[in-house]
Specification:
Helix content of chain B: 40-55%
Structural class of chain B: alpha/beta
Radius of gyration of chain B: 25 Å
Shape of chain B: globular
Strand content of chain A: under 5%
Structural class of chain A: mainly alpha
Mean pLDDT of chain B: 94
Distance between the termini of chain B: 47 Å
Shape of chain A: elongated
Low-confidence stretches of chain A: 50-60
Strand content of chain B: 5-15%
Low-confidence stretches of chain B: none
Order of helices and strands of chain A: HH
Helix content of chain A: over 70%
Number of helices of chain B: 18
Number of strands of chain B: 15
Number of strands of chain A: 0
Number of helices of chain A: 2
Oligomer: heterodimer
Largest sheet of chain A: none
Radius of gyration of chain A: 13 Å
Largest sheet of chain B: 8 strands, mixed
Distance between the termini of chain A: 24 Å
Chain lengths: 60, 490
């Protein structure tokens, strides 16, 4: 993945993280949060070069 | 009944999931079984008769708005929400997540509210990771490269899904018409009517692959002792590695010319299949053809190795550390249905693991520890002073923790006791890092603590008391005797 694309997605991840924190601060963990986090994780997989490695990856 | 399985990993994992899908079909013959895979790997599901519907994750479509100018984050979120809502409308009775990733855990939690309908990773109502079943807890604690698990992923997936596999679950699709396909290939290439080897020189990642120039040496030396043909298969992505392999009279190049069904057909007609950890190697498990599998430290061969009895697994730390002569020796031994006399892992198929070391003394302590913790096996004998000290230190941390738990039970508001309990947790984790052989025990302990969902302080402390007490019952088995040279028999 090109560096510019990685950087762009990183900025988007930060925006999503901010949005997630705002929702938690005002309404607690909601469905909306779950969907924001879902999108965050989908993007993270791309920034790790579409890290769809085997299922033997650790989860945190 | 409606069942949804999430398998969002790559080709190889999807093939390893086929037996579990068949076992689910056998157990629930009338159920509707749906499978979610990534669009890119959806071809690995073609022909799997056990599923009724394939749902693809369209990553490109969902993320496309992010690459507009200006980016449209809301549109991406909307597309993802529409996709999940469409799936959720099916109101599944059970969701089985065989993906073990953060993404799949959030997806599961969105699709199903009720944790009783979930197997595999999900999320609690507070967003933290939820591990509802014991098999997934085992996966979290013990499965993966660098850990000590020896169960094949095929069996682990089945355990998570709550089904039992049968040998016939490892078979190709009936739609593929394997025998007919093989005959067609033999008609097209008459040399395939004689004995041949199938070789897949590539791998999904560089660190799993044997270098092309080494394959060249293997093939040159093999040609001197093996009169048959070598059929080289692979996708277009494998072309780079095959360019280092010269043409020769005994080589038949089929790179980019086969579909998965063709690969299985050719493997079924081959004498031996040779390759690294890759989708074709997993497909070989759908045939009766033994394999010679080159396995390096970025892979756990116990979990993803070939399953046909008589297969040989050559393990080395890295591709550079595996001499091409050894590869040739092992291919010859496999062809002649004998052992080479060198260190190798043989697929025996015997329960429960199915693999055995030959001519190599492996340290089984950590695996025996896993067996004792999860399967009630005998506790391994301790004859290492460092391990004994590790148990001792964990024992001390557990005693400290249990004292703090008692203090918190007496008075919930006890910040000192809470801090000391956290310190005990950290100490145990640190000991697991410093003494890797004890990591299975520490990982089990940490996973059990992680499994508790949002609850009140009383339940939380009760849970901690139980897990610490269980840990104590193990560490006291290994209390250091007065003479440190004495073996500890638990």
């Amino acid at each position: 993945m090109k560096k510019e694309t990685q950087a762009h997605l990183q900025v988007i991840l930060e925006r999503l993280e901010k949005a997630s924190r705002e929702v938690i601060a005002t309404r607690g963990y909601t469905d909306e949060n779950a969907r924001i986090r879902l999108l965050q994780e989908l993007i993270k997989e791309q920034t790790q070069n579409e890290d769809t490695d085997t299922t033997t990856r650790p989860i945190r | 009944m409606k069942i949804l399985i999430l398998q969002l990993a790559r080709f190889g994992d999807i093939f390893i999931t086929w037996p579990t899908l068949r076992a689910l079909r056998r157990r629930y013959p009338g159920a509707e079984i749906h499978l979610v895979v990534r669009r890119r790997f959806a071809s690995a599901v073609q022909g799997c008769e056990a599923i009724d519907r394939v749902i693809t994750l369209e990553t490109g479509d969902i993320l496309a708005p992010l690459f507009r100018a200006p980016d449209d984050l809301k549109e991406s979120l909307l597309r993802l929400t529409e996709w999940t809502d469409l799936i959720a409308e099916n109101d599944y009775d059970q969701v089985i997540n065989l993906s073990f990733s953060p993404f799949s855990s959030y997806l599961t939690s969105i699709l199903v509210d009720d944790p009783r309908r979930v197997r595999g990773y999900s999320r609690h109502s507070d967003g933290y990771l939820a591990i509802p079943d014991d098999a997934s807890a085992y996966f979290y604690a013990q499965v993966g490269v660098g850990k000590f698990n020896r169960y094949h992923l095929g069996e682990v997936f089945a355990a998570v899904a709550g089904v039992d596999l049968m040998p016939e679950d490892w078979r190709p699709s009936g739609d593929w018409q394997i025998q007919k396909r093989l005959e067609e290939w033999q008609d097209a290439i008459p040399a395939l009517k004689n004995q041949f080897i199938v070789l897949h020189p590539g791998a999904s990642q560089r660190q799993k692959a044997y270098p092309g120039f080494k394959w060249q040496i293997v093939m040159s030396r093999l040609a001197k002792v093996w009169p048959g043909k070598i059929v080289m298969i692979g996708s277009d992505a494998d072309r780079a590695i095959t360019e280092e392999i010269f043409d020769s009279p005994n080589l038949i190049r089929l790179i980019g010319k086969t579909e998965f069904a063709d690969v299985v057909a050719l493997m079924s007609g081959a004498k031996v299949v040779v390759g690294c950890d890759s989708a074709p190697m997993h497909l070989a498990s759908f045939t009766n053809t033994p394999c010679v599998n080159l396995s390096f430290s970025s892979v756990c061969f116990w979990e993803t190795g070939p399953r046909v009895p008589g297969s040989h697994i050559l393990f080395a730390e890295s591709p550079e550390a595996l001499p091409s002569d050894r590869v040739v020796e092992e291919i010859q031994a496999c062809l002649e249905n004998r052992e080479s006399g060198f260190p190798v892992v043989i697929r025996t198929g015997s329960l429960p693991i199915g693999y055995e070391w030959r001519n190599f003394r492996a340290d089984d302590f950590s695996w025996q520890l896993i067996n004792a913790i999860y399967s009630g096996g005998e506790w391994p004998i301790l004859n290492d002073a460092t391990l004994a000290k590790g148990f001792q230190r964990i024992n001390e941390a557990v005693d400290l923790a249990l004292d703090q738990i008692a203090a918190i039970e007496a008075s919930e508001k006890n910040p000192m006791a809470t801090r000391l309990l956290e310190q005990a947790d950290r100490a145990i984790r640190a000991i697991g890092q410093m003494v890797p052989e004890l990591r299975p025990l520490v990982a089990w302990f940490e996973t059990e603590n992680l499994r508790i969902g949002p609850t009140d302080m009383s339940n939380l402390i009760g849970h901690y008391r139980r897990t610490y007490s269980q840990l104590k019952s193990v560490t006291t088995l290994y209390t250091l005797p007065e003479d440190p040279r004495q073996e500890v028999h638990p």
